[in-house]
Every structure is written in structure tokens, then in C-alpha cells.
Design brief:
Number of helices: 7
Strand order of the largest sheet: 3-2-1-4-5-6
Strand content: 15-25%
Number of strands: 6
CATH superfamily: Flavin prenyltransferase-like
Number of domains: 1
Low-confidence stretches: none
Mean pLDDT: 95
Structural class: alpha/beta
CATH topology: Rossmann fold
Shape: globular
Distance between the termini: 43 Å
CATH architecture: 3-Layer(aba) Sandwich
Oligomer: single chain
Radius of gyration: 16 Å
Order of helices and strands: EHEHHEEHHEHEH
Amino acid sequence: MARYLVCVTGASGAIYGLRLISALCASGAEVHAAASPWGSRVVLEETGRDFRQWCDSTGVAAVHDPADLAAPVSSGSFRLAGTIVVPCTMATAAAIATGNVRNLVHRAGAVALKEGWPLIVVPREAPLSVPDLRNLLTLAEAGAAIIPASPGFYHHPATIEDLVDHLVGKIMDRLGIDHELFERWKGSIK
């Protein structure tokens, strides 16, 4: 069974992280989760739900305290099939890009890079400054996939959930996980 870590940080767009956790659990994966303090706050503000309670109700294997740098997911010997930071604040992207590890989310990103396993960063902030863009480029050059929270419209979304599922499906595609979260492009309308 594949094991993944989903990290939620304080950028708006907590729904992306929560939906990814749900989709990974539904796929049969072992899902670990962590939220920065502001990530937990944004989950509460945007959904009215507590992050830990939401994860527990979804079937997450473990919710890790962001201050616990001794958590299993902080070590490369705790093998993961991927680490996803969704949504990712620019402060988190900068910390991972520069190796300035101050919490478990930063450490998990750094471990993914050093171990060479998939690291997916989903920035949701806008506009992006030149330093933000440089940090994202540094992450991409180090092997991370940058998947901006900008869903497509070719599948004719009718709801916010359709938009969220499109982005989550793109993340799962990058992880190599089969899904039916959105209808794939079949060519031009003639």
C-alpha cells in the first residue's frame, strides 16, 4: 500500500488539501496529514471544521503535530510515495527552497527533496513576487512538481467541487494514481 503525506498550510484554498486527503484515502492509500497552525486556522475559517477531526473522520492514518520534528514523516527512513503541500503558502515554499526548516511541513518537504521522492507544491497565492517565482523555480530545479491551484475549464465544470476535483485529479495524475475525478480532454469540438 502506498503511503502519502498531505500538508495543508495557511494559504486560502484548504478545500484542495481536504479533497486530496479524501481522494487518497478512497484510493486505498495510507494517508498521513499535517497542517501548519495557520493551515488549521484556514481550514476552520473556510470550512467550519477542525482539521484533525476532519482527518479522523476521513480515515487518515495519522495526523502529525506541525511542531513535532521527531514525527515519523520527518525522516527519510519513513518511506513515502509522495509529499504534497496543498495549499502552499509562499513562506512555506521559501522555507523548503532554502532549507530553512522551522516546522514539520518544512522538514517533510526537505526530506522529500533529499530522498528524491515526489514533492508536489500547490501554490494558491496571487500575485507572485519575483522572490516567490525564484523560490518556486528553485523547488522545480530540485525536483518538485509545481501545480498551481488554477483548474481548467475544458471539462465544463458546473460546481466548485468540479473545479476542485480537476486540480486534485491533476495532483493524483502526477502521483500516478488512477482516478475518475474529471473527464479527460478528448479533442476539439467540431
